[in-house]
Amino acid sequence: MIVISKLKNLELLPFPFLTQLKGIIEEDNSIKVEYQGILLSTIEHYIAIKKKSQKLVNEQQILDYAAQGALAIAFLHKCDIVHGKINLKNTFIANDGTFTIGPVNIFLNIYEDKLMKSEKQLGEKTIDEEDNEQIKEANSEQKLKENIIVDEKDQLKQQDLYDFGIVLYSLSELQAIPEDLDQICTLQQSSSQSHTHKHFSRLHDGFAKQLILSLLNNDPSQRPSAEELLAKPEIQDRINSWIQQPSQLPPSSKKMTQIYFSIAATLKYQYYKNLRRFLDLILHQKK
């Protein structure tokens, strides 16, 4: 399958902010996915420790986590892979402070691949059996179904960003997202700031807060993509600080010196020597 091939290529792509895929085994019509062991603290556990010690996660840390998470999500989305499992139990903080996103929901991607393959076969069968008018109708119908699948995948990618916003909110406030989430999501469109105080008691007004609110926007079309997050000057500043002062970058993240990356969905991987080139690729490479 196409998606299996994509995911297998991730074995060749060590990425410091993403759990490393160890292998995919296909036998007896079943699929087994193995990941490298995760010797990290889940965000859920990390928050519990912070609350117990009464230590806050400061805004600079939030921006670092936002930058590291955005790099991982942009990397996956550029490879046309949906994560599908970004939550407090599947995101991690290493002892060196690196933010890491856990294993991808492989079955979500396989399902999309099966739909594409099934619809393609259906279209081919119709073309063989029907006259020209029906062929045109079948092609049109096939194109519509493929567009629907693409739209659904875009929605899943937007959901990845929304889920990432929930994780960042929980880190900033050391608590789960409140039930009245709809109110939070409309705050950024409100001229009044008084409503935000009960939801953001720890994080002050500023870029980090607005970034989180933008990810939690109820309107998916208004949420920034991972690429748009990386283009933000404040995020660029954090990444540039890692490049200019490598000592600030956790040891496990220095693997950024060797990165393979997909050009759109062709899976033709190229070698990039440093983070700056990788970032420029995400922000400027045409799909």
UniProtKB/TrEMBL annotation:
Source species, domain of life = Eukaryota
UniProtKB keywords:
ATP-binding, Kinase, Nucleotide-binding, Transferase
**Pfam families recorded:** PK_Tyr_Ser-Thr
Specify the Protein kinase domain's residue ranges. Answer: 1-235
Q: InterPro entries, from UniProt?
A: Kinase-like_dom_sf, NEK_Ser/Thr_kinase, Prot_kinase_dom, Ser-Thr/Tyr_kinase_cat_dom
Citing just one GO molecular function, the answer is: protein serine/threonine kinase activity
Classification via PANTHER family: NIMA-LIKE KINASE, SERINE/THREONINE-PROTEIN KINASE NEK
* Protein name, entry field: Protein kinase domain-containing protein
Lineage of the native species?
Answer: Eukaryota, Metamonada, Preaxostyla, Oxymonadida, Streblomastigidae
